[in-house]
Amino acid sequence: MLKKKIKFPLRYGRKFYGHLKKDLMLFYNRKKYLYIFLIFPILIAGLFLFLLSPTTASMRVGVCDLDQTPETQDMLTDLDDFDIVLLENENCTENLKNSIMEGKFELGLKIPNGFTENIENLEQASLITYHDNTDIALSRMVSWKMDSSLNPYRRSIIDGLNEELKQRISVARQSIDTAEQLTGGSGPLHEKIIEIDRDLERIEELDTDFIVNPIKTDSRGLHHELSMKYISIAFLYPIITLFLILMLASISIIYDDKTGFITRVKTSTTVLTYIFSKILFFFILSAIVFALFFGIFLLAGASLTFNLMEVVKLIFFVSITNSLIGMLIGNVAENEGIAILMSLFISFPLMLLSGLFFPLQNMPYIVQRVVEVLPLHLQIEATKSVILFNQHLGMTLLYLNVPLLLFTVYFIRRNI
Amino acid sequence: MIGKIKNFFSRNDNPLVSKNIRFSYADEDVLKDINLVTKKNKIYSIIGKSGSGKSTFLKLIAGVISKKHRGKIRIFGKHRFLNKNSFGFVSQEPGFIPDLSIENNIKISGLNYGISEKKALERAKDLMGQLKLNIDIDRKPMDLSGGQKTRLGIILSILHDPRMIILDEPFVGLDFKNRWLLWRFLENKRKEGKSILLTSHLLTEIQEHADKIIILKDGKVFFKGQLEKLKNKLNMNYIYEVRFSWLAQSKWEKLKNYCNKKNGVDIIEKYEKHCVFSLKSEEVKKKLDKKFKTIGLKDNIINFREPNLDEIFLKT
In chain A, which among 317-346 make CB contacts under 8 A with chain B? Predict the structure, then answer.
């Protein structure tokens, strides 16, 4: 009786191990899958770290200085972040535009005639920048970079203006002192003069910072200890895992179906044993992806504190969700090519709606509510709480996985 | 309810009991009402025209098709889900993992049936000896010839030493030598006490080796039993092959009318002046010869003999 009791779980343990061993051996034997699987996360993590650490390489700027005053030359000298090339004045604007189109300059700057005169007359002066607006990322950066580079020059203009103002007010206040003495120290005229003197004193003490920017926004992240670079692991890990596991799980189901292995599964074990062994296999793969990612971020200097048990739970739930979705794709797709396309079809929109590339808060209310229940969004939120905030994993992913598991068992039993 | 539960768990040593099996693909009824009980230590062969539902029936028994069906299937008295290790299913596709070696295929298949890798290799070696499969197990299965693949597929499906072996068209693509070898193997398994259920189109070989024949027709069991019983059922104990010197349409109509009147004669096949009749007895042959003379047909007898399964099958 005891022997029989031991035999039963042993037999089922072997069946489970058989499926797992088959998938591991296949994965090792099909080297192309193995290499892509290992290289892909390393490549993405490396690229991201690189992208979030911009280099200080200067941007080439062509300049048409139509004003040609010592002030404009000073201004150009102050543009430290740019590699300035002055163009000839004849047909300057056209030449500048053509040079940008040809890729000689990333940015063009035109200083119109009368620029310095406008400033001297205390009138608004304008600069014109040219850039290739088909380069979306560069277009976004150009205006911001030019604005921030011009800030020291703007400040020096206002500083000079403020200094001049103070000098003039100082002279005016000296005259007021004389007038005050003439009033004899009393009477309505004396009071009025004192009032004017107080107003002038306030103007004399005016701070340049107030004139430049009367309201300063000091934006402080609640998690200032976390650098942007390391926060991205909470987004990248679920995105890359989703993408890889969706493809591998769907292909694996199609492979088993085409080779007739699934027939052997159905006649020897249960579909549930088969699905659970696949989940364990993809859990191992997800753990490898995590180790690769974390290793690279660690090498780049990341300092993150988390509970290892919670991380294991996180990887487990993430792998369950992704492998079940992948298996469902494998059920629907007729061949490996369609499975890969369908995996892309699902993972790409989820990636765009992950919050890594575009803020979700800008999206319509209904889209925001839909995004909240999307698997990738839930995985990102779970990863953030475990990896970045060292918190416990919530139950949301578990709630998502139960209906997914039921769907997968039903479809595999029905369709394959 | 209690009766149903008792019935569900009841011990029954019959390898297969199927009651009122109904199954349909989309709108087409493939199996309409299959009732079948098989006995131990026998080779049962299911025959039927293409599309008669032979493979579907085997796949339902083995659980390969899990779409909903009506009726009850019991394997050695238990639901097949609870008794998977008691049978081995050899499908038309061998079910190899092409990227793994034969050795690893054996190990994985063994594990799938819940036996250790070592035991699986031992059993595979023994079965390879029985099936005369001398191959290097480090090779990949796709390097094997068609006959070798079929034999390896059978080995992988019965590594767990099942009490019943179910084979779906195992002889397809095999030459005579390999077929002969496989029949010998199945007969040996029967001697070891195994029950065998297979489908095949090779009626002459089935006639020679199978203990019982099951004919599926229109989604139902048309016949189950031995060949002699089938001959009696069909009134078909002799085959009479005749070539007429001349067969006018009017005379052919008269002959057809005579055969339709249940005189123990049936027309099995006609090609120009060449006709094949099935006869109930030798007496019937004499009456038919008389009829030929009455109608005015001059005949040239080609053959008068016992029918083979191909001819019997034609009549079904």
Answer: none
